[in-house]
Amino acid sequence: MLDRRQRFPGMDFLLPLFYPSLSTPFDYLAANTLVLEVDPVEIGRSIRLIWERIDANFAEALATKTPALAPEALFLPAAGLTQALTRHTRLRLYDIPDADLADSATVELAIQDHMLLKQEITLARPQQGLLAPLADRVSAWLTAGDRVVMACRSPRHVRHLAELLEQHRIPLAVRPAPLKPEELRGPAVAELLLYDQPLAEGFELIAERCHILSESELFGEKRLGLKKSSRPRLQPPDQPPMRFDELNSGDIVVHREHGLGVYQGLVTLELQGITNDFLQITYLGEDKLYVPVDRINTVGKYQGLTDKQPKIDRLGGSSWALAKKKVKEAVWQVAQELLELYAKRELRQGRAFSPPAEMFRELEESFPFEETPGQHKAIQEVLDDLISEKPTDRLVCGDVGYGKTEVAVRAAFKVVEDGLQVAVLVPTTVLAEQHAATFRERLQGFPVQVESINRFRSPAEQRRILQELANGTIDIIIGTHRLLSKDIAFKKLGLLVVDEEHRFGVTHKEKIKKLRNEVDILTLSATPIPRTLQMSLLGIRDLSVISTPPEHRRKILTFVARYDDLVIKEAIIRELQRGGQTFLVHNRVQTIYRMAERVTELVPDARVAVAHGQMPGKALEEIMVRFVKKELDVLVCTTIIESGLDITNANTIIINRADRLGLAEIYQLRGRVGRSSEQSYAYLLVPSMDDLSKDAKDRLRALMDCSDLGGGFKLALSDLQIRGGGNLLGVSQSGHITAVGYELYLDLLQKTVMDLKRRAANAEAEREEIEPEINLRLSAFIPAGYINDSGQRYIAYRKIAALATDKEIADLQDELRDRYGALPAETLNLFEIMAVKMTLKRLLITRLEQGKETLVFSFHAQTPVSPQRILELLQKSRETMRFTPDARLVVPLRHPAISPLTVARDLLAALA
What we know:
Elements: E1 34-38, H1 40-63, H2 71-74, H3 78-85, E2 89-93, E3 111-112, H4 115-128, H5 132-143, E4 147-152, H6 155-166, E5 172-175, E6 192-196, E7 203-205, E8 210-214, H7 215-219, E9 252-255, E10 259-271, E11 274-282, E12 288-292, E13 299-301, H8 319-341, H9 343-347, H10 358-365, H11 373-387, E14 393-398, H12 404-417, E15 421-425, H13 429-442, E16 450-453, H14 459-471, E17 476-479, E18 493-499, H15 506-516, E19 520-525, H16 530-537, E20 542-546, E21 557-562, H17 565-577, E22 581-585, H18 589-602, E23 608-611, H19 617-628, E24 634-637, E25 650-656, H20 663-670, E26 681-686, H21 694-705, H22 711-723, H23 734-740, H24 742-760, E27 773-775, H25 790-801, H26 806-820, H27 825-842, E28 845-850, E29 854-859, H28 867-876, E30 882-884, E31 888-892, H29 900-911
Parallel strand pairs: 1-2, 4-6, 4-8, 5-6, 14-19, 14-20, 15-17, 15-18, 16-17, 18-19, 21-26, 22-24, 22-25, 23-24, 25-26, 27-28
Antiparallel strand pairs: 3-7, 7-8, 9-10, 9-13, 10-11, 11-12, 28-29, 29-31, 30-31
Helix pairs in contact: 1-17, 8-23, 8-24, 11-12, 16-22, 21-22, 23-24, 27-29
């Protein structure tokens, strides 16, 4: 490749062999360029760290005999960087005076941060509210003749903040961005100046008596909307997040009608002068099936329960029909057994709580964040469960940091409001303490008594709590499995909230199961165990999915790497440089202190502490409080931090021996970071990439695939496929799952369960679902020139095939325009076909095909279209339309200039 001068992966590290000389960005700077260096001391440390990594990589390449060039041939050395900078005027900013300043012209600025102001606002907020302390301080500054500026995140925040501050009689003026330095000179104006200009941190210019405030700094990502007695409710879509598994050529797929085949990719074919895209599937004997892209949802990726390759079907053979028949018979038996599991719950009369009243609305308005659509929907579904007579048994599945705790707070308040008690069961002592703090903060000012029971409590405290729990003084009790002990007695328990059910053992789950027959149950989980998720997918337990990330949330960048001291050192130093904190998870108590010592050796400037479950309760509590208060930089800990910790300043996590941890466990640990708008990082360290077991590789691959926001639900589905559904389906069903694939088996089981439920309730049978076939003489596809990557094109087709409403069609069209530009005519045709297909489904019209001069609509026997309606159309058409004995409506195409889609739409509108 070098001889032929061809490009190849990794050629960046051999550039001197391609080019006689290499340039740097400094070679392109004009002579009069001003170079700004922010904190040169930290820049120097970063340069030394980078060269340490470069030298280590070069040494490793020499040791493994990998072709590599000397670092000096590839990278600009530190001395060369200094020399390049000295050719320009340099402005260096230091926090404190430095020896380097001796030979330079210096300007000292007296600047102060707003740490004390932030603390003052936080302490006064429970008594005075969100803005009163700030308004008092701003008034004092303006009265003293100081200049005050507030930087806001958006025009909407400027408007809302202006309206709120006007209620505090603060004179203000809204100014257009950007804030110019000259506007800070001259005599001060007796007004607060509001700018639509985001600013991470504010500061005070002491000599100039100028106070520049940052909305984000003072209030965080909080809601500044006006309080309203009736907040408009969002109406998010009902369906859970869809999965668009990318197919690769050679994957085994399941076609609902033709069985198991091998996917050969997307192909573009021209038939009778019409060009379209098709999925090509190969069957036994090299028979090929071409599936139109508008029917792509009839094809799914095959997922079995073992690595054994399934038998490919013969196209048009009888084996697939027989396999489906056997599976349907087996599914019927399993469905009946599943329903018997929860028959007691369905038959039991539940407790109907009262609808939310004024006090509940006050709790809603006190929530300092804007509810996401998914969070709002989950809250509404839980409330609907509670006020109905049906016993509540709902799983709320939401990613870490997506607001599941607030759902539990609202549910608990509703139950307490009606005079009953709530128990919140959590897996760890640390999480119990954090939940107790969260519940107390949210319910402050309301007549609700919250307590926590765990090993941090002394025997005397525990006895008092048990007594108050029994006599009803305590409304909400939060604790670990201690809550399941025999000596725990409630006066009137109404709701059990179980957080992270997968963390509890078999014995504890059996006790929870007994409680399920007596009280309402709400389960919260980011990654539910396969059995729990499967029960919810089957409709046996209710499921709410919070898939919408909070505003400004960013996905966690995840790296899998071989254990290396330098990786740990780099990760910690980079987090220290931006003022953040780091978790280092080392799940071996015997060697955890040795690991902490190693971290101190690698990063001497870091403040390091150890936390693990075998420590005395008070000592562990003290360490966690110090970490929350930012008195520590690195917390070397076990998986005790797995659930619930909400520390927004910690944005790097290093997990040692990630191969030894479960999928949900790593996902939960990774969720301890990334809980703010800062970019967060997760490093999964393993001894060797080559020696990992297949399951470990699958788990790490699933984690990498699920790094996007809201990946917890998708991850749980992956776990369900890796581990199976436990004893829910039983070994006896594994052969049937292998025969048709997990996805189709689950779909058949779900439909059978729903059918049995309807029969038990004497409800009307659900109308049969059909997948209409559309054959029109026009091109309807996504050209390869529009979306070049075939994988992305396949995902776009899956999204189009899943469309169910006109709004979804419009939203997806907007998304494609934003990403790829104006929609081609062929793609617009495809969207129109999907819109027509939605109506065909509703009217149970199985086929729409175009003849030489006609359109033919084939009706299902159960079509809701009345014969009278068809007769009226025939009479109006003056015998140009025909209705055949085999239930087909033949419509003439009179004008070649009119699209068959237009004719089809008009006729369907008349039928509907």
